[in-house]
Amino acid sequence: MKQYRILIVGFGIIGKGLLKTLxxxxxxxxxxxxxxxxxxxxxxxxxxxxxxxxxxxSTVLSKPLAEQEGWRQGLKTLDAIKESTADAVVELTPxxxxxGQPGLNHILAALESGKDVATSNKAPFATNYKRIMDxxxxxxKTVLFEATVGGAVPLLNLYRETLKADSIESIYGILNGxxxxxxxxMTDDGVPFDAALNExxxxxxxxxxxxxxxxxxxxxxxxxxxxxxxxGQNITFSDVKVTGIADITYETVSLASKHGYAIKLIxxxxxxxxxxxxxxxxxxxxxxxxxxxxxxxxxxxxxVTVIGRGAGPRxxxxxxxxxxxxxxxxx
Amino acid sequence: MKQYRILIVGFGIIGKGLLKTLxxxxxxxxxxxxxxxxxxxxxxxxxxxxxxxxxxxSTVLSKPLAEQEGWRQGLKTLDAIKESTADAVVELTPxxxxxGQPGLNHILAALESGKDVATSNKAPFATNYKRIMDxxxxxxKTVLFEATVGGAVPLLNLYRETLKADSIESIYGILNGxxxxxxxxMTDDGVPFDAALNExxxxxxxxxxxxxxxxxxxxxxxxxxxxxxxxGQNITFSDVKVTGIADITYETVSLASKHGYAIKLIxxxxxxxxxxxxxxxxxxxxxxxxxxxxxxxxxxxxxVTVIGRGAGPRxxxxxxxxxxxxxxxxx
Lengths: 331, 331
Description:
The structure is a homodimer. The first copy, chain A, is of the alpha/beta class. Chain A has a seven-stranded mixed beta sheet, with helices on both faces. A six-stranded mixed beta sheet of chain A has the order 9-11-10-8-12-13. In chain A, helix 4 links the parallel strand 6 and strand 7. The two termini of chain A are 13 Å apart. The model of chain A has no long low-confidence stretch (mean pLDDT 96). In chain A, helix 2 runs parallel beside helix 3 and helix 4 packs parallel to helix 9. Chain A folds into two domains: 168 residues, Rossmann fold (3-Layer(aba) Sandwich); 149 residues, Dihydrodipicolinate Reductase, domain 2 (2-Layer Sandwich). At the A-B interface, helix 1, helix 5, strand 12, strand 13 and helix 11 of A face helix 1, helix 6, strand 12, strand 13 and helix 12 of B.
């Protein structure tokens, strides 16, 4: 059976979720795809776990990496990427939305050392899309990044693999679950913005500092990626006009509702704009809670809308693993 | 550039729509996929158009096939399939839902003569799924049938290509646009069943004899295909318990609406059942008009819902052409 080995870079909530999910799904992936997917190492900020054989998925999450056989304190991720004999790097670090680092350097180093890349890290693609694509072309390796937009919702692969004759005319939708939760609460429960935000924080849906989401920055990063990956553009974050939801009052939401509309934070990819918009109540994009919903308008299929879970470590693993299996299939 | 040649079998509304769409998209497909997609012939019930070179897409729809250079009156489709040197047969005939014919024989003959198949014909798959899969395995050729379920909505390819690590736990949804139009009319405009049906007929959404749709038979055929193709089952039409929408009264719809629900004809693939069900108004499956909406529930991604156009010659071409391009890519 074909073996495919990955080096995991980033050991936060997404990295741990991926390892846990992979342990559960390893046998399934062998059976469905004929691919034996193995983890050759795990890097985090203080060093890397690089055991002689492969990482034992049944025990790796049971104690700190630094206490495990094969831990190399202080080994830099970039050096581990170069040294590793893995087939692919799975890049899962948190990214700086201004510079794309450290993910950008990890991705470039992986490609330059002959490895494919699968990643959930938005920042490198929102800041340096062309540079990554150029490196991909130069090295002949492949970068897949389905998980950077819409979590478990298939978008990049949906277009690439299922709409092969279609040209995209526009893409827009709800690309952030936190803001959708807040706006849904305001609409359904008739509460003001602050109360809805506090509930989101209490439920762990919004982070302690949710500015990044509320100001629309997270949505804008995804707009940039969709514009570049699916609409042939070459834009960065600064090309997107962004208005967040902090100024949406309960009165506005209530008035819209009375007239048959919901207010949603919409990323409009063709227009390069993120802003609160009125969505008719019967429209496919009018989804509740933390759901993401994205509509692709094309010349043949007309409109295809995909709805699903935009966040969560397990859900995001769906997209990352699907990409890794695709890479393995091309080996 | 790689050439890929198809023989089109069936020259009704779908076949004509495909030829028209292909003419418009041929250059796009060359550019995006590096595939020069050509039509080597077109068969209908009275004979086949098999010109010496390829079919000229710019003129083929301008006059009856029988008046064109290369027309062979009385040539049987099965003989043309065997004789043809095309890479694939695109099967677009109307199918008998009891026997799967004549599409079944066309598909088997194509495989046995070394050709791939792309098709929108539900009947062979709802009646003889295993036989087709066995023939596929025996011949080493490939049958793709995205267009048999949900028209332009990606479902089979969505699961195969974008959810590679996910196991499906359930699939259900609105798989027929005619019944959805009727139920939406009853809900939104407060009209009884017969009035909604008549409007559907006037708009050309329902055929003169819409029994096939209203009794849920069309939905049941799609349930069979999804069960077999995505849930590893081997069932036929008679395994599905079917209740249509003819007994849904305006009073029922109205009562449901008052309590926050819409009534939709739902195909439940895991339960092997087609029946009218209550769908909460905020649920992603509560879509209006002729839209199709299908929810896949999986172990990792949780729920992924896809919404789009379930019918129409141009929309269906999106799925057929995507499959043909996939086949060409594997040549």
